[in-house]
Task: structure prediction
Amino acid sequence: MLVLEKRPQPSKGWIAATPVLAVVLTMIAGGLMFAALGKNPVEAIRIIFWDPLFNAQFASYARPQLLVKAAPLILIAIGLALGFRAGIWNIGAEGQYIMGALAGAAFGLYFYPTENPLVFPGMIIAGAAGGWAWAMIPAILKTRFRTNEILVSLLLVYVAEKLLASAATGWLRNPDGRGFPGSRNLSQIEAMNNPELIANTGMHWGVVAAFIAVIMAYILLNRHILGYQIKLAGQAPRAARFAGVRPTRLIVLCLGTSGALAGLAGVFEVTGPAGQISIDFNVGYGFTAIIVAFLGRLHPVGILLAGLLMALTYIGGELAQLMLTIPAPAIQAFQGMLLFFLLAVDVLSNYRIRLKREGLA
Amino acid sequence: MMGIDPVTLIAALIVASTPILLAAIGELVVEKAGVLNLGVEGMMITGAICGFAIAVDSGSPTLGFIAAAGGGAALSLVFAFLTQYLLSNQVATGLALTLFGLGLSALIGVSYSGISPPVTPSLDIPGLSDMPVLGPILFSHDAIVYLSVALVAAVWATLKYSRVGLIIRAVGESHDAAHALGYKVVRIRVLAIMFGGACAGLGGAYLSLVRVPQWTEGMTAGAGWIALAIVVFASWKPWRALIGAYLFGGITALQLRLQAAGFDIPVEYLSMSPYVVTILVLVIMSSDRNRAALNAPASLGKVFHATG
Result:
């Protein structure tokens, strides 16, 4: 009989190996799913993971998309990981992302028409503030009334989606848009545009922000007392309290940071790749970022790699839709599977598997 | 406030509440056994599409509901395996269940959008159903509505008076003590998780087969999360879950009526009201320190690893 024996310390080797193992297992299970859909599994996996990068026909379009899709995922996941490490569960990043985009767009359009070069930086700050403020709701309710932050942050996603709909059809609608829903196209307004910084790379200000966030998070977690407190609070809450860590402060900080980063992701998206506020502006980055955070082992560098991999599944998924007519939701199921396998194989990092004969216990 | 008839409003309230009530009563049992399954939303939507697909293909809503319960329970088994045998984090695994369930259901549902399901008949009781006021409110619903209330009663009685209920509660309060007494903690929890999954699946199918009735991607729209909130609101007490679900259903039904009556509030603000009210209720419940802490199962969400 197989029994699990808890390791005194999580295995370093397995911690690094489990994400790779999970990706391989997901490819196998995903291949079975594609086969069940009547597609050639090997071809499907190749189209998702290989063709966007190396197929001569698609790579020129797909490669820049990698950074465009990865930037919001990494930005959001970095913030979420800080909280997850401390045992603070912000799962409403999708709502904070929407609110960041709304706040940023509203700030910019308030000054329309303008050529003031300060408007774009102002929009970025407004976006971060919007996401931060939306995350402060669960933070304050948690610290003041001990309300569960998981449920509140998640329920606020639906509220944010309704606000987005009312903005797209009402208070931010393009007055020159002949009554169609959707705001003015920000990416076509000089003072509000988040342009591609280097041609054909997909590099925009959001990508820069994502790289900075990775570096800052790395320093915070490894070199700063706050990072130590975050890790301590997650691993040994009681010890943390004795060591003088104030849980209230950590909750406000972690939720606030993740909200602000999600807001940033939102405003960079709305001024760049998306271009405008529309009813279907949000595409689930806030939820996929949860997978990215776990796949990256809540470690900044890991998140960077996981974000790029997840971005690849988005782009490859679109390609597979085009080439093999695989339905779009298959990719979503595929991404969900990845998190399952990761959590499943994680048992190997925390436990040793031992063979034990029946009756000896 | 014209155009809002209290009798039809209450009848609509009951229909609006039933999916959430079913999911909540299932999750209540799961949490009583000490497991926090945040995948309710994913199991509900999987139940919604399983029920819808089978009901459409077979022409029988009954078969649809059975399939929905089976689908929800099957998905919950993945959660059970990961959290109980591979000892994974329950919060993260529950989230994974929701993300996967949303994708899987959308995938199954690709060919089912825009179809009308077979009608689930209401159980008209001659005489009683024709009564004024009480007839439409109490005696003209379908079998699932009565089943949901019966389930609440059964869960209440089981938890409170039966040996099984006592064991479930023991496992939820202290898994180590229950294990020392010789109870199979993992087995009991797996069964509780499957019950929760089946209930969530039924609730989802009630949405797609009766309430809406149609299949659209992501149609549960947070109902599973609201069910989780209702368990907290109910302080883990079955009858209070019924009150919570009907309260929530009342707000949903009322805001829909207000939208239809062309009330002078933008539609978006009316439709966000159920979520806002749920948050407010959560705040009120959790701000009372004694009440909130008293009833929560002591081992809720903790990983159980038998060492001896």
